[in-house]
Design a protein that fits this description.
The chain is α+β, with helices and mostly antiparallel strands. Helix content is 16%, strand content 45%. The protein is built from nine helices and 26 strands. Strands 8-7-6-5-4-3-2-1-15-14-13-12-11-10-9 form a 15-stranded mixed β-sheet. Helix 6 runs antiparallel to helix 8 and helix 7 packs across helix 8. The chain is globular, with a radius of gyration of 23 Å. The N and C termini lie far apart (62 Å). The mean pLDDT is 91.
Length: 445
């Protein structure tokens, strides 16, 4: 309980700070957190500010929250409240607010306060507990397993302190945290060399002018065992995957065949219908509906679509037209935000995620079932994490991939799909970072 300041570093270099406040109330707790970082992605440095405030019940489960994320161009806001076994989340400002109701199967915790919650558990060394944690950026729920490793002495702000050392496992992504006997966090060490450590307010706010991370996109990239020349010309690619954590990955289906650790990807073509997979009507109906991030029913999306396609166009022709429009009209630049189609249409800038949600919205508005796929793609000698789209084209009788960042339909075979779905499904990719290894076995031209 109290206010705490932390330096955020990456590979020992300061990239920002965090301020956390935790207090008791008559009916539970209040938690608030502000995070400021200067993040380098694809060579572009951007400030990122994340603010979270929440009311917690006496058992530290979530009662309600307010979440705001802002960077150079974009702002994302969400607020939510738990009532019984339902979480109602409202996304966006008053003018464009959307509501989503999420069913809860177990008590829900907020990620920002999860370590403080563990501090109250009284775990013994080797014992652990699993919490269901809500992520406001993706509207997803995932289990977090926290295990007490033992006790350790730390020097924090020049003082030696006894701390409990915890292992935190989120979707296979491991981090270590050290907490005070009172439950407050002293230090955290996570992926990509990012760490936090308790400091004074003055130290946390100092040195921000020169603070910047290494290029996190490059750090997360996976080396390729072989150079691939002209990836767009490949008909098939065979790869051995190693280091896969347990998870609900969608490796087998459609143009991908996964057997005994070996993945074969074949490029879709009208002359090779075997790589086109059919879908049941229920799946397709869901992929025509708007979502909080793919606002396919919004007037602005539909008006722009009417300028891009013609009423008599076949689905294949419409799909190619909207891929070409998004490819041509969006500035390709990394942004730090939670992408949604409407904001992307208005700002006309973004990385793969912005391209994917806008393309998905146009397709659904045109009556083409569409979804987002995410995984990795080959570029410049490495595989980078990436997102693209998949359409169900009735005139072709199956799924067809498309990448509006690269202007490809179908997407080349170095697009390796691990998940299909929006941000809540893409959370599963976190567990791959730093663990996944790829060995190219065969390339067919």
């Amino acid at each position: 309980v109290g206010e705490f300041w932390m330096n955020i570093t990456q590979a020992g270099r300061k990239i920002g700070y965090a301020r956390r406040h935790y207090s008791r109330t008559d009916d539970g707790f209040r938690f608030s957190e502000k995070i400021f970082m200067r993040i380098n992605t694809m060579g572009i440095v951007q400030p990122l500010i994340v603010r979270t405030s929440a009311k917690l019940n006496p058992d530290r489960t979530l009662s309600n929250f307010q979440f705001d994320l802002g960077s150079n161009l974009f702002k994302f806001t969400a607020r939510g409240e738990v009532a019984g076994k339902k979480l109602t989340v409202r996304i966006g400002g008053p003018a464009e607010e959307t509501t989503r109701v999420i069913d809860l199967t177990e008590p829900l915790y907020l990620g920002g306060g999860i370590l403080e919650s563990t501090g109250a558990e009284g775990l013994k060394p080797g014992e652990g507990r699993t919490f269901s944690v809500f992520d406001p950026t993706s509207l997803g729920q995932r289990p977090v397993r926290i295990t007490l490793l033992g006790e350790e002495e730390l020097t924090i702000m020049g003082t030696s302190r006894q701390a409990r050392k915890l292992s935190v496992d989120f979707m296979g992504m491991k981090q270590i945290a050290w907490i005070d006997p009172d439950g407050s966090v002293l230090r955290e060490e996570g992926i990509l060399g990012i760490g936090l450590e308790r400091v004074t307010r003055q130290e946390a706010l100092a040195g921000l002018e020169g603070a910047v991370s290494a290029d996190l996109t490059d750090l997360a990239a996976i080396p390729s065992s072989r150079l691939i020349k002209d990836a767009a010309a490949l008909k098939a690619l065979k790869i051995r995957l190693e280091g896969l954590p347990e998870g609900s990955f969608f490796l087998d289906g459609g143009r991908q065949v996964y057997r005994n650790g070996v993945l074969t990807i074949r490029r879709e073509s009208p002359s090779d219908p075997s790589v086109l997979s059919r879908a049941d009507a229920g799946d397709l109906a869901a992929l025509l509906k708007p979502t909080p991030f793919i606002q396919s029913d919004h007037l602005k999306i539909r008006q722009k679509l009417a300028e891009i396609v013609a009423p008599g166009d076949m689905q294949d022709v419409m799909a190619r037209k909207i891929v070409a429009w998004v490819y041509k009209n969006l500035e390709k630049r990394p942004v730090l935000s939670i992408p949604n189609a409407l904001e992307t249409l208005e700002n006309r800038v973004g990385d793969c995620n912005e391209h994917a949600v806008l393309l998905g919205a146009f397709a659904r508005a045109a009556g083409i079932p569409a979804d987002v796929e995410a995984g990795v793609v080959y570029m410049r000698g490495r595989f980078f994490y990436h997102a693209w789209n998949v359409f169900y084209l009735r005139d072709r009788g199956g799924w067809m991939t498309a990448d509006a960042v690269l202007g490809q339909m179908p997407a080349d075979v170095t697009h390796i799909r691990f998940v299909r779905g929006e941000a809540d499904r893409q959370l599963d990719l976190v567990g791959l970072i730093g663990r996944l290894k790829l060995e190219i076995l065969e390339m067919e031209r």
